[in-house]
Amino acid sequence: MAELDEAVAVCFVVRIDDESLGSFNSCDGLSVEFSVEQHEEGGNNGMVWQLPTRVKYSNVKLSRPVTKDSAKILKWISGMAGGIKRKTAVIEARTLEGSVITSWSLTGVVPVRWSGPQLSLDSPKVAVETLELAHHGFLSSVR
After folding, report:
1. CA 98 – CA 95 distance, rounded (Å)
2. Which of 26, 59, 64, 98 sits a CA distance of 20 to 30 A from 131?
């Protein structure tokens, strides 16, 4: 049972070029898709060649309740007013005790969208922010 417990992540700690953005409670979009072109070879009716062509990486969406770390995101985004510079990001999945389960390193990271909380006195809810990142792929990490 202990092995299964290790795979349950309760937070995702994010760093952009070694600057911490804090922890998030939701991480969606860590995926890669390979486009495949089919090629039928003349005289060979027994198979169709599957040739990989393009690699597409999904945007990563991170969400969390608004905290004091929210200012770190806005500082990073406002720093891009002088020009967009791609960064490297590391996302670590951690347990309740803070142990790292696994991590993903992303290259060529830029923010795509940040959305702040919807504030209303009529329906009090937890104030949530979402950060969406585009990237150029995964870096291999050796531990």
Report:
1. 5
2. 98
Q: What is the CA radius of gyration of the chain?
A: 20
* Beta strands in the chain, from DSSP E residues, in sequence order: 11-16, 19-24, 26-28, 32-39, 49-57, 60-65, 87-94, 100-115, 128-134, 137-139
Can you give the CATH number for the domain in which 110 is found?
2.30.110
pLDDT tens profile 26-72: 999 999 999 999 999 888 888 999 999 999 999 999 999 999 999 99
pTM for the model stands at 0.83
Which of 50, 55, 47 has the alpha carbon at shortest distance from 37? 50
Q: Look-up: residue for tokens 């309760």?
A: 10
Reference 13, options 76, 128, 91; nearest CA is 91
Where do we find the tokens 């040739």? 51
- Count of domains forming the chain: 1
Angle ∠(23,115,77) on CA atoms, nearest 5: 75
Taking the alpha carbons of 1, 12, 66, 18 in that order, is the dihedral positive or negative?
positive
Other CB atoms closer than 10 Å to residue 24's CB: what's the count? 21
